[in-house]
Every structure is written in C-alpha cells, then in structure tokens.
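Researcher: Quick sanity check before group meeting.
Model: Go ahead. Protein one:
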Amino acid sequence: MQNIPHVPVLYKEVVEAFKDLQEGIVIDCTMGYGGHSCMILEANPNIKLIAIDQDQTAIDFSTKRLEQYGKRVSIRKGRFSNVMQEILQEVDPGEIKGILADIGVSSLQLDQKERGFSYESETLDMRMDKEAPLSALHVVNEYAKSELEKILLEYGELRNYKKIANAIVQNRPFVSAKELSEAVKPHMPRGKKIHPATLLMQAIRIEVNDELGELRSLLKSIEEAKLPDAKVAIISFHSLEDRIVKREFSKWSKSCICPPEAFRCTCGNNNQLGKILTKKPITATDEELKENVRSRSAKMRLFQMGEK
C-alpha cells in the first residue's frame, strides 16, 4: 500500500469480490493509480488483467507500478466504454471472469489543483483526459443559461438551479473554480457535510466528461457481450450513477422483458443474463471511513453474469 499514492475505496471488498479466480481475465475499466489492479493481481496469481484509463498521468504511474506483473498486465488508453468494445471483440468472452469499474474522479485528480476539479482550484478544467476538447472553462463561460440550468438540475440535483445558473451568467467570465464557487456561494445548499460548491462542481464535471453516458455505454457493452461466466463490480459515488447501475442489473436479472401491460409473454422468456449478488449496495466500513473520508459516498453493486 505504501507505493500507491492514495488508498482505493472499498479495497477489501473488491478483493473479496474477485477472490479465488483460478484463471481468465479481469478487466479494470478505471485503472487510475493501480490500487485495485495491484490488489486483484496479488490475490489471484493465475489471472491476467487488462487495465483501462484515459488519464495519461495515471497511465504513466501505473505502468511502472504494475510492471512487476510482466505479461499478466495489459494497459489501454481511452474511454472505458470504447476500449471495452475493442476488448470484447479481441478476447473470447469465456475468458473474461471479472469486470471492475470505479466510476468518477480519483483522489489524485481532486488533489491536483491544476486539474481544476476542486472548488479551491485556480483553474477551470476538469478533463479526465487532458486532450479532450471540452473543458469546464467552456461549459461555465460559453453554455447558454438554459443549458446550465439543465446540467445543474439533472447532474447536480440542485433545487436552486435557476438562481445558480443566473449567478454564473451574470458574473462570467470565470478563470478559476475558486472564483466560480465564491460567485455562486449565496445560492448553494448549506447544512450538509459537504462543501456548498460540491454539487455544482459535480454537475460540471459530469458534463465535461460525459460520465453518465460513459457508464451507460459500458453497461450496454457488457450486456451485449453475453459473458458466460463473469462477475461485474461497479463502484459509484452519487445517486445518479447508482440508479443507472441498479436499474441495469435489475433488467439483466429478468427472464421476461415484456412491458408490464402485455397480456402475454412474447419475448421468449429467456433473457436473463445472470443474477444480482447485492440486494443492497456494499458501502465502506467504519474502519475505512476513518482511513479515507472520501469513501463515505462509495457504493458497490455486484452482478454474476451467466448464473441463473
């Protein structure tokens, strides 16, 4: 753990989820700084791992971090939704025994103020891939008021979204996240454990990186692959992501997918892809919460493909 620049969330639970794999491939869709990848490789000496990330800084670090595992590791750069589709075309679906996705921004990205993810940052960026064309600077300064209202309501779930959007439009241009958070501070919710600007930053970050679209694309790729024997673990950090995962897992577990109003089944009643392993999401223990306060919002759901 000393060689990892931050402690990955739910690390004990992730190791437990993928324990006892005797062979095959595990795909870490969100490698980051290699914490989960390293632990899975250590716990399962006979498996291979394909790791994906779009952040070149993370790739550079994790390439060195994971080089000790030699040919057991393959690292791919790109959005996990796109790279997953490529992998599923290259690899026999039966070889894939596990898929892990730790959705959202990493602690290292939050802590690097020059990346513009934090409300204390002197920049406005928020791109997980530094080469991506859309940045927070463009969203905040160029989006129409109606577009801002939409993302503040849908991605930030902010009740005061109209006043916040108006404050942004009236005070722009902005050059830093710190400046932005101060300008909207009078209109942000208070009384919660999080900073008042957290939900604002979340909404902008989701828009910049198309995070919900990426998650939906990943889940669609997994669904279409019809994996015969793979455990899927998705870690989310806010209710928007968790609802998407919960809904998809529920759909995958159903044999009949006819609409509720249908008089009789016409779908074949053979559409079940596997079974849900977590009726309720797995959350951090009290011990982990003391070690890593950012784990408080982490939720992991598990699904076993191929098992009925």
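Researcher: Fine. The other one?
Model: Protein two, sequence then structure:
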Amino acid sequence: MVGDLGPGSEEGGLPKLDRPFYETELYRLQVELVKMQYWIKHVGYRLILVFEGRDAAGKGGTIKRITEPMNPRGCRVVALGTPSDQQNSQWYFQRYVEHFPSAGEIVLFDRSWYNRAGVEKVMGFCSPEQVDEFMLSCPEFERMLVRSGITLIKYWFSVSDEEQEARFQSRLNDPARRWKLSPMDLESRDRWVDFSRAKDEMFARTNIPEAPWFTVEADDKRRARLNCIRHLLSKVPYEDMTPKAVKLPPRRTEGTYKRPPLNEQFFVPNNYT
C-alpha cells in the first residue's frame, strides 16, 4: 500500500516522542504559525490546507494544534456534513468552493472534495461514472486554484491497522470521545483493503506537480503533529511581521463611577473553594 504504514510499524521503529520535548517544540512552532498568519494577512495570501486519511489517523488533533494559537477571524476550519438533496444536484465542487479563502485567509478542510475518491466510492454513495469524472476533473480544478493565486497543500495521514484499532478501542472506552466514532467509521473498519486500493488510485491520478500529496506518518500523534506543522511552515514564504509589543499607559481613573450593589446581580456559583 502506497503511503500507509505496515501492520505494527511505528514511524520506522522510533519510540513515541517524549512529552516535554513535544510540548516545548509545539510551542515554538505555534509561535511561528502566528508569525505566518500576520504575514498572510498583510500580503493578502490565500492558503488552503486539505487533511485526508484513515479514520482515527490524527487529522483532527493536528488541525486543532495548527489553529489553536491563531486568530480565528483569519483562520477557518471547514468540516462539511452529508450533502443535501440540493447540493447533490449541483456541480460536485460547488459546496466546497463557497468556503474558499479571501485575501489574507487560511482555510483548513477536515476532509474535502476527496470524499468522492474515498468514502463515497468505497461505500457506494456514488456511481463509477461519477468517480471517473472526479478523477478527470480534480487535477484541472486544482490547477485552476493554483493559477488563481491560491496555495493548496494536501496532507494524507497514514496510520497502521493495529494503531487505528487501538484508537477505536480508546474512543469506545472514553465517554468524552465516543462521539468521534461514527457508524461510518465502524463500517469502514471492515473495508481496510478497499480503502487502501481507493487511496492508491486517488494518489496515482491526483498527485500533480501543482498540488502534490504529502504523507504524514501518524502512528505517533505527537511526532505527526510536529512534522506536519514544520512542513507547513516550510511551504509558506512568510516573514516575521509580528507587531511590536505595545506599552500600556497607566489606566485613567474616574472618581464619579460607582459599581451597582452586588446583590442586584446574578453570579455563577463558585463550587471550587
């Protein structure tokens, strides 16, 4: 299987990344992400990031670490649900295009138009003719995006079957994370080989020079997050345009203001004394 780790492999046999090092490096990279966003806003850069991969491969966790330090006014996550009947009657790419970035914006797609080449194909939600049309149209569609001035970066998160199984079990055992495991995830669990074949064909037909696929080995979530963020930073030609720190002047005092009586207000109870 192209791009997927073999059973039981873990980043080429490397041990899981040490947490103190991970947290220190993550903070350093997140500072760089903030610098990148200042530059993107200043020059009117348009950036699309596509995150695809196996269920439970770690896409969501990486997206969270990328967006965590940034200003949400210029950085959006798009995670579309099942298309409506109206959307199904539209040009396939239409419902994605309306979420594309304006000047100075970053848009991260948590799954994307590649649903057609993956889950829709494997689960039978579209016809073979629709898949063939997608494979023909997608490279031209992405070339148009790049020619228009949008930077498109596509990531595939690769995880071994053993690690995916362990993550599924972890989600089942954690009530706070059980929502992450949908009936579709359970169905796709039984179609590992079918998804592998679909992914291999997708890579073969959509891995174009203008918008190549970048595989993130994701059996170790910490290492995957750092590698992905570092790679992203290397692909954007940003400069440090962080504004200088502002020195706060002394606060003005107004002697005429009196706070209303506290018993006229409702307070949230403090249950942690």
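Researcher: One line on it for the slide.
Model: Residues 20 and 26 are 10 Å apart (CA to CA).
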